[in-house]
Amino acid sequence: MTRTLRLAFYYLVAMAAVIGLWWGASWLLETTREREILPSPWVTFRAAVANLGTLASAFGSSALRFLVALAVAFLLGLPLGLVVGFEPKLDRYLSPLIYLLYPMPPVALLLFLYLAFGLGEVVRLVVVVMALFFQVVVAAQGAAKYIVPSHVTSVRSAGATRWQIYRHVVLPATLPSVLTAARVSVGLGITMLYIAETKLGLLLGPGAGLGRFIEYYTFRGDISLAGVVGLALLGLLFYVVLELLERVLCRWKFVGARGGA
Amino acid sequence: MIEVDGLTLIYGRGGTAVPAVAGLSMVVDSYELVSVVGPSGCGKTTLLFALDGLLAPTAGRIRMHGEEVRGVRRDVALILQDAGLLPWKTVRANAELSLRIQGRKETAGKVLAELGLAGFEKRYPSELSEGMKRRVGIARALALQPRVMLMDEPTANLDSITREHIQNLILGLWWEMGFTGVLVTHDMEEAVFLGKRILVLSARPARVVEVIENPGMGEPGYRGTPEFVSQVAHLRQVLGGNGP
Ligand SMILES: Nc1ncnc2c1ncn2[C@@H]1O[C@H](COP(=O)(O)OP(=O)(O)O)[C@@H](O)[C@H]1O
Ligand SMILES: [Mg+2]
Q1: At A72, which CATH number?
Q2: What is the spatial distance between Cα A23 and Cα A16, in angstroms, rounded to a whole number?
Q3: Tens of each residue's pLDDT in chain A, 261 residues
Q4: According to the model, what pLDDT value does residue B243 have?
Q5: Which of A154, A190, A243, B93 keeps 20 to 30 A from A127, CA to CA?
Q6: What are B35-69's pLDDT values in tens digits?
Q7: Looking at the domain assignment, is residue A38 inside a domain?
């Protein structure tokens, strides 16, 4: 509990620091260029309050979109990554394919995705899923490749089926690194979300996502910036949720003299 | 009863093939505890994996209670070198792991208590001492109430006090539970303390080079006796003649 409180305190301090820096930058730009360039935190806050309904709706839509994309990326990527990493035969055949596709940015395919899926909700999800999917696959595969053989032997000796080996050994052994990778990928995911919501969200209103919100108010710096802050908070939210998930699901990692190593 | 006849185990094929066991034959009577001693890397773990049904023989055969071994058997339990505990499972979940995999509903509470692990059920392996981890590994095997126990260096890398404690524990459990046991070790004193017979293996690829009868074995007090000391000396001589 004190740990959680201390962590919350650090986040508060960090947030205060960011706001301080923001204020400084805003003031510096305004005095040197003699006009408002970066709206100050206070101005932005007022703009946010004035447009609270739209902003909240945009935040909710983006959060839901990101959550669905993350869930789909896990549901598809985790089994694939684990199987490819754990079964040497599949590893040999599928790894080159994965490594070939992995560095390809979905942004570069936006035109084709648009032609294939149109401008509906599906295409926006596909872009974010594609970005997160490969992160999950590569993390799961890497972790599954280095599973301690004696852990597998201990369940095989009891007569475990293939499914039981995955359930008792492969999945729990790899979960910490997969969750860490997912956490690290939140930044990339949010970027892709922004791109999906702006480039593939032309027909939407400002309440349909933070990306759209930011784009819609391009000529109102203060409102637009409130959307950017929303996007940052969205990233933070998922980062924290994934960290908590890791603490709950991988409790064994956080106990013991050597931190469970 | 375990009968091994001309067992050969080779890892890999072709130019990179590693023969680990070559034409090994041995018999372990029912309710007998036999120790298998040999230099490091000679093929002891490989032999145990084959007895457990984890590795199929390249040649030769293994029979348990008259049936040919063709995969893992529910009446055989293996205690892995370094216990093989799963770090993400608690002591209790580790001890009950084999039971659960076999779909059995029994619990390991009693066995854990008997091995002095009561109160530690909710701990994770990283929170335990080395000796406690080994006892959890033993509990996992005992919980199955197996007819045959295969033990892979159960006291390797332990301090001498803990080692003697675990050796006494195994001896006591053998009396109490009446299993047929094969205990693999590279420790000569352990081989003499825990083997009614001692099978001495050659360097890799392993085969039996000598069988030492050890009728005095069976009491914790055996360790201090002149007979024990002379058996260890004899074993040392045999291993010295065939050792690395
Ligand atoms: N999976 C494997 N593939 C190839 N060689 C192996 C494998 N496992 C063990 N070996 C080799 O077989 C020999 C016997 O190993 P092992 O049975 O573990 O020896 P011990 O338990 O007596 O120390 C060693 O030389 C080891 O390097
Ligand atoms: Mg070994």
Answers
A1: 1.10.3720.10
A2: 10
A3: 677 788 889 989 998 999 999 999 999 998 998 888 899 999 999 999 999 999 999 999 999 999 999 999 999 999 999 999 999 888 888 888 888 888 777 778 888 888 888 888 888 899 999 989 999 999 999 999 999 999 999 999 999 999 999 999 999 999 999 999 999 999 999 999 999 999 888 888 888 899 999 999 988 989 999 999 999 999 999 999 999 999 899 999 888 655 444
A4: 46
A5: A243
A6: 999 988 999 999 999 999 999 999 999 999 999 99
A7: yes
B91 touches chain A (CB under 8 A): no
CA B184 – ligand 1 centroid, Å: 14
Give the residue, by CA position, lying nearest to ligand 1 atom 9.
B46
Residue A27 covered by a domain: yes
pLDDT at A72: 96
A152: closest CA of chain B, how far (Å): 9
Token digits of residue A208: 């349909």
For atom 3 of ligand 1, the residue with the nearest CA is B11
Q: Chain A within 8 Å of B126 (Cβ-Cβ)?
A: yes
Domain count for chain A: 1
Is A261 part of any domain?
A: no
Contact B135, B82 (CB under 8 A): no
Q: Which long-range contacts (CB under 8 A, 24 or more apart) does B237-244 make?
A: B238/B200, B238/B209, B238/B210, B238/B212, B239/B37, B239/B38, B239/B39, B239/B188, B239/B200, B242/B200, B242/B202, B242/B203, B242/B209, B243/B39, B243/B203, B244/B39, B244/B203
Nearest CB to B84; choose among A150, A251, A260? A150
Q: Do B97 and A168 touch (CB under 8 A)?
A: yes
ipTM score assigned to the predicted complex? 0.91
Q: Which ligand is nearest to the CA of B156?
A: 2
A172 and B88: CB-CB below 8 Å?
A: yes
From the list A120, A90, A89, A127, the residue with the least C-alpha distance to A105 is: A127
Residue A113 inside a domain? The answer is yes
Residue range(s) defining the domain that contains residue A149 = 22-254
Q: How far apart (Å, rounded) are the C-alpha atoms in residues B5 and A247?
A: 51
Chain B residues closer than 8 Å to A147 by CB: none
Closest CA of chain A from B76, distance in Å:
9
